[in-house]
Amino acid sequence: MSVKYTLRLAKPDDAEKLLEIYVPFVISSDRTLSDVSFEYEVPSVEEFTERIKNISAHYPYIVCEHDGRLLGYVYAHPYMQRAAYQWGATVTIYLAPEGQGHGLGKVMYTALEALLRLQGIVVTYACITASNEHSVKMHEACGYKIIGTFNNTGFKHGHWLDMVLMEKVIAEHPKHPELIKKIGELPPETVTAVLKEASARLQ
Q1: pLDDT digits 0-9 by tens, 5-34
Q2: Rounded CA gap, 143 and 139, in Å?
Q3: Can you give the pTM of this predicted structure?
Q4: Cα(6)–Cα(135) distance, rounded to whole angstroms?
Q5: How many C-beta atoms surround the C-beta of residue 185 within 10 A?
Q6: Cβ neighbours, 10 Å, residue 193
Q7: Which of 60, 72, 112, 149 could be cross-linked to 95 through a Cys-Cys bond (beta carbons 3.0 to 4.6 Å apart)?
Q8: Residues of the chain with confidence (pLDDT) below 50
Q9: Backbone dihedral angles phi then psi of residue 91, each to the nearest 5 degrees
Q10: Closest to 91 in 3D by CA, of 39, 30, 143, 158
Q11: Using CA atoms, how far apart are residues 34 and 177, in angstroms rounded to an integer?
């Protein structure tokens, strides 16, 4: 059976295609989409490329490819900058319209969390616009729970937006945790195996 879906780590060359997925969440006339991102302007391809490079230097940045087309991406980044926060990470996901409603988000999060556990991460967080009920429900289906609301924390399109903070404990909290590893410090064959297993679930 030929492979229809492939999960792999993002490359800088993916920036243009990933940016196409992201654009509606910034500037769509449909506010249910463009309220998702708190950016006002679409970043340039060059800036988006740098974002991929910077994130990928430390955390997993995963894309899903289907017949040569990128359907979505998911990545992690620091929850807070201080050293004592390093065992937590914030996760972010964006899917193209044709990538939604097929369980893709859950599979991509499963792969992301597996890699984060190998790095030493024990808890993940998602910050979501409160009005984005679709994303909130998807995260709940993935095991996330709302632990707080930031009221009127962002202003876009002439109105104030609430943000909910969701949390998922993905590993036990060790009594004496080791410093987290960078994604590049994990054995390449282990990373490949995680992504291959996740890809198989989508066939």
Answers
A1: 899 999 999 999 999 999 999 999 999 899
A2: 6
A3: 0.94
A4: 23
A5: 10
A6: 12
A7: 72
A8: 1-2
A9: -115, 150
A10: 143
A11: 39
Task: Tell me the one-letter amino acid at 19.
Answer: L
Rounded to whole angstroms, how far apart are CA atoms 127 and 167?
A: 9
Collect contacts of 72-81 with beta carbons under 8 A, ≥24 apart: 72/21, 72/96, 72/99, 72/104, 72/105, 72/108, 73/10, 73/14, 73/18, 73/21, 74/105, 74/108, 74/109, 74/112, 75/10, 75/112, 76/112, 76/116, 76/121, 76/124, 79/125
Question: What is the distance between the alpha carbons of residues 107 and 95, in angstroms, rounded to a whole number?
Answer: 12
Tokens read off for 88 = 């937590």
